[in-house]
Amino acid sequence: MSVASHLKIRTDEYDQQILTFIPFYDEILDAAATALDALERPAKVILDLGTGSGALAARCLARLKGARVVGIDADPAMLAMAEQRLGKVLTPVVGHFESTPFPTCDVVTASFSLHHVAEPSVKQRIFRKAFAALRPGGMLIDADCLTAASPRLRARHHALWRDHLAMSHGAAGAKKFLAAWAGEDTYFPIDVETAQLRKAGFVVDVTWRRASFAVVAAVKPRA
Ligand SMILES: C[S@@+](CC[C@H](N)C(=O)[O-])C[C@H]1O[C@@H](n2cnc3c(N)ncnc32)[C@H](O)[C@@H]1O
Q1: Which of 1, 98, 166, 187 is buried deepest, with most CB atoms within 10 A?
Q2: 169, part of any domain
């Protein structure tokens, strides 16, 4: 499904609309890029899963001077926006990250894209594939909605997200969006996501968290 039909917007509205959809969006992407400061050595290749319009890739490139980005995205219209934003440092790859081979890289990034993977075994395979593609010492950054373990906290976080949506789209609009996304997206508990990354071989930390939104930094240790 294209981003435009999933979010019920025009593709060229994405950068404005995403701010109304995701609380703390800019802060999350800034935190995701900042986590890369802990890399051991200069990165040459960033593999970005679900590049979208390139907002996270642009932030990563600003920190990792001289790096280039391979952006895998199923939606050619979104990748076209990323190409406009990033220019020649982007190698756009139209494809699904479940089935597209990953190039050797120093960093793997994903922001608000892995929640499109519903099946835990498929998510596990993606994490294993990312681990295999990364050079030792490399890092995977996963920024997404990753839910709390406690049902009461989950309810509070859900209410916060609903209130954020309602500010721009009204109460009925907020309810409609959350219901539609609940049918299409899968937000795993943060414990499950981090356990899957550890199972793939990563050393895992949560570097940023507010409500149900988190940045997870997973390092491929040197043997
Ligand atoms: C909500 S957007 C996030 C884009 C961007 N990373 C950001 O933070 O704004 C999700 C992106 O992931 C892409 N996507 C979703 N499922 C995918 C899949 N299975 N394989 C490749 N791309 C996918 C969509 O086309 C879309 O561009």
Answers
A1: 187
A2: no
